[in-house]
Amino acid sequence: MMNAEEKKAMTQMVHGKAFVFGDNVDTDQIYPSKYVEYTEIEDIRKYAMSGSAMPDLVKRFHPGDIIVAGRNFGCGSSREHAVMTLKGIGVGAILAESFGRIFFRNAINLGLPVITCKGIGTFFQNGDTADVDLITGTITNETAGTSVQAEPLSDYIMDILQHGGIKPLIRARLDKGAL
């Protein structure tokens, strides 16, 4: 568990352009099942959000940009490809009113920050500039000059994210003899 000094020393900020989606964006919209045969990240990332209302996202997206959505983002199947494709294009964070349970856990386990925030689906417009403090849960719409408070990530989740996912965290602990 992180103490107050460690938390203060590691301010974890995400900054990028917001890409806004609605409610119930399922894993087939995030990564259509017809591409599930691909296993290499270079192939997988080409199809990020290709089944969604914004199928050209990959062409418009820059590493660090942020996905914003309404309720139930990532509902549907349990395949990790949905998270892998978003991480592969460099998503800085996903902000949503709620997440599919398995998608949320897959995201954390693969090192992709996901933040739950009531009303976030209407807080941004496409192209707004966003700042997200993963530790405090403060989300700022720089374009509008407004902020909202989300549920902060737990110390345990931050530890996983800072290691790049659950596997790298376990490897690091094994290397230190902490497991």
From TrEMBL:
Catalyzed reactions: (2R,3S)-3-isopropylmalate = (2S)-2-isopropylmalate
GO MF annotation list: 3-isopropylmalate dehydratase activity; isomerase activity
SUPFAM superfamilies, sorted: LeuD/IlvD-like
Any Gene Ontology biological process: L-leucine biosynthetic process
InterPro entries in the record: Aconitase/3IPM_dehydase_swvl, AconitaseA/IPMdHydase_ssu_swvl, IPMI_Swivel, LeuD, LeuD_type2/HacB/DmdB
Record-listed E.C. numbers: 4.2.1.33
Keywords: Amino-acid biosynthesis, Branched-chain amino acid biosynthesis, Isomerase, Leucine biosynthesis, Lyase
Residue span, Aconitase A/isopropylmalate dehydratase small subunit swivel domain: 47-112
Binding partners and assembly: Heterodimer of LeuC and LeuD.
Annotated function: Catalyzes the isomerization between 2-isopropylmalate and 3-isopropylmalate, via the formation of 2-isopropylmaleate.
Name of protein: 3-isopropylmalate dehydratase small subunit
Species assigned in the record: Mitsuokella multacida DSM 20544
Lineage: Bacteria, Bacillati, Bacillota, Negativicutes, Selenomonadales
Gene name tied to this protein: leuD
